[in-house]
Specification:
Blueprint: E1 7-12, H1 26-43, H2 48-53, E2 56-67, E3 76-83, E4 91-98, E5 104-116, E6 122-123, E7 159-166, H3 180-189, H4 193-198, E8 201-208, E9 217-225, E10 228-237, E11 243-253
Helix pairs in contact: 1-3
């Protein structure tokens, strides 16, 4: 695997990355992923500053992760990211988190697109990459990852939860939008406390549908049936009285 484009870091997990049951937060996993992707993108010439000079930016639109074993607080972990051969308008990047002996902990995958900063138009990804096909890892970390999640109204369920919130200053990233990892905190905070306490996360999927800015108010609805929960967050209303979808998510519980 070392022959492919990749970046690897060893990290010591921190206590604030875990919940009250000492289980790693999905937001912490997403922060590992995005931090590594940011560093590696800069290494291969498509980082934040390089893209900004071209009036372009990377936008994450889907992400999936599978938990094989939860790391422990203070445990050294090894995080590796591999980009795949880019499509015309989509670029895929995978992630592996292992212990120091190489045993699998968490696998992840993500789908990105490129936006023109000035007009928000989608631009082609492929011209940004200049590597031979043999340098891209052909193996996918999550074979069924990055699915399109269904609208919540199409889901039948045995129980439903709901919560509301507002985008705060500490939610923002350097683009002035809600950081993707904060969406994962919203999902966890939308769960019923007793249910969450009694269940471990086996996998999670996100569809990021629209950016959230400071002051935006949102409403999250959740439908849970057996070991699967579906989440949908909406913000504001348009001229027709319809809400803008902010994100959809799915958690499969162990």
């Amino acid at each position: 695997m070392d022959g492919f484009l990749h970046h690897t870091q060893t990290i010591i997990t921190a206590v604030d990355e875990f919940d009250f049951l000492e289980r790693i937060k999905p937001s912490a996993v997403m922060e590992y992923f995005q931090d590594l992707a940011t560093v590696h993108a800069t290494e291969i010439g498509i980082g934040y500053e390089e893209m900004k000079e071209k009036n372009l930016c990377w936008v994450l639109n889907r992400l999936s992760a599978v938990v094989e074993r939860m790391p422990a607080v203070g445990e050294p972990i090894v995080v590796t990211t591999y980009p795949h051969k880019p499509g015309i308008v989509d670029a895929f990047r995978d992630y592996y988190i292992t212990d120091t002996k190489g045993n699998g902990l968490i696998r992840g995958t993500s789908r990105w697109c490129v936006l023109d900063i000035r007009n928000k138009a989608i631009r082609r990804c492929a011209p940004l990459f200049s590597f031979d096909d043999s340098q891209y890892n052909p193996e996918y970390a999550v074979t069924d990852g990055n699915p399109q999640l269904p609208e919540l109204n199409s889901i039948s369920s045995a129980c439903e939860w709901e919560c509301t919130g507002k985008v705060r200053i500490t939610d923002l990233d350097r683009n002035g939008h809600m950081n993707n990892a904060r969406y994962a905190d919203i999902v966890v905070n939308s769960c019923d406390f007793d249910f969450y306490s009694a269940h471990k996360i086996a996998s999670f999927d996100f569809n990021f549908l629209s950016e959230a800015k400071i002051g935006d108010e949102y409403r999250v609805r959740v439908k849970t049936h057996e070991n699967v929960s579906y989440f949908e967050a909406n913000k504001g209303v348009n001229s027709c009285g319809e809400q803008f979808p902010m994100f959809r998510a799915k958690i499969t519980w162990a």
